[in-house]
Amino acid sequence: MSLFELDGKVAVVTGSSRGIGRAIAEELAAHGARVVISSRRQDACEDVAAEIDARHGPGRAVAIAANISDKAALTAMMEKARATLGPIDILICNAATNPYYGSMDGIGDEQFRKVLDNNILSNHWLIQIALPAMRERRDGAIVVISSIGGLKGSDMIGAYNVSKAADFQLVRNYAVENGRHNVRINAIAPGLVRTEFARAMWEDPKIQEAAAQRMPMRRLGEPRDIAGAAVFLSSQAAAWMTGQIVVVDGGSTI
Length: 254
Prior knowledge:
This protein is of the alpha/beta class. It contains eight helices and seven strands, in the order E-H-E-H-E-H-E-H-E-H-E-H-H-H-E.
């Protein structure tokens, strides 16, 4: 049996109608998991689920929309996921927001609260919802998609970086509390990945080229570059790993 096999596992991936979340959901399904596709729009989720079913067979993916800013909606999504596919073995907290670019001393209170609520509090809610059943079964893997922004400062996305640094500590704390229950909680810190979410950071060809030249691998990331790390952390290959931050950034932080 491969260390990376996920046959029979049920995974929930937030923000999985596009970008990194979609790539992760597709790779989890390719390794045998049944996946819940979740983002704000039901139709977008259904399109992705249909493509996964077409590739791997009916019933491999289910579309359940939910807004990460709404605790009741997240609770309902997780309950429907359990009712439809069974107990949740893997939770990937990928959805996030960044409504502001510029100096932190210019961000409005509501914008800052939105960043903190959507990027930290929503992950806390999702973990809280998933944990009781995982602890009871003494098995579970939770992965928070953070960012290398949480490792450094920025004059453009400072508030976002604050939230991503907080995600690291969220993961560490939950890992300390739940390792005894055989529930593993880790984070992935991607570098600059070519997604719609990060378009403002790479859309200008000159900025993109400059960013790529600062990386040892001389290219921006693609969503699938992050998916492998998520499969690893979700599988038995990472059975003795918890509370860690896996940096996947083409070498930019070195």
